[in-house]
Write a structure and sequence with these properties.
With 172 residues, the protein is of the alpha/beta class. It contains 5 helices and 7 strands.
Length: 172
Amino acid sequence: MDIKSSPEGYHRVAGVPGLDMAPIMKSVSILMEGKIDFEFRTTAVKTLHSIDDFEAIGRWIAGAPRYFIQSYKDEGEIICPGMEAFSRAELEEILAASDPESLLLPLDSLFADRPFCKLNEAGERKLRNGASLRTGKLADGEYRVYGPSGEFLALCAVTHGELRAIKSFFSV
């Protein structure tokens, strides 16, 4: 999927003042669920992007399996004249100026809008083995689920007191 810019700068790069970001955000969210293979790409244009844009994109799509920044190429017949490519040295300078590790957020931050629950050791074993868990204490909905050590294990759904994994994030 093409990511033109950060959410804040998308309208400017797309050339659409007042652009409704909802469909774009929804597309990113659907892909980030991990049900299909995907990658994100941004074409870096010197006259349109800054290091701040790339850092904001990194925060937005944190946890994506693949993100590529490709350099703009002037192929003669472009829609908007005045576009300029970053030189290789400039792109390397941008990368060096930002700490790539600082752009990575913990995976569970993608689900920060959901409540969390912490399992005991027996519950963690069941979850890791693909079993559902009975819980009468949690309301129906989606939860970030952690093991007793605090490790983020899964995004789960509770329906009628039964907790089931939607997507697990632990190593097998």
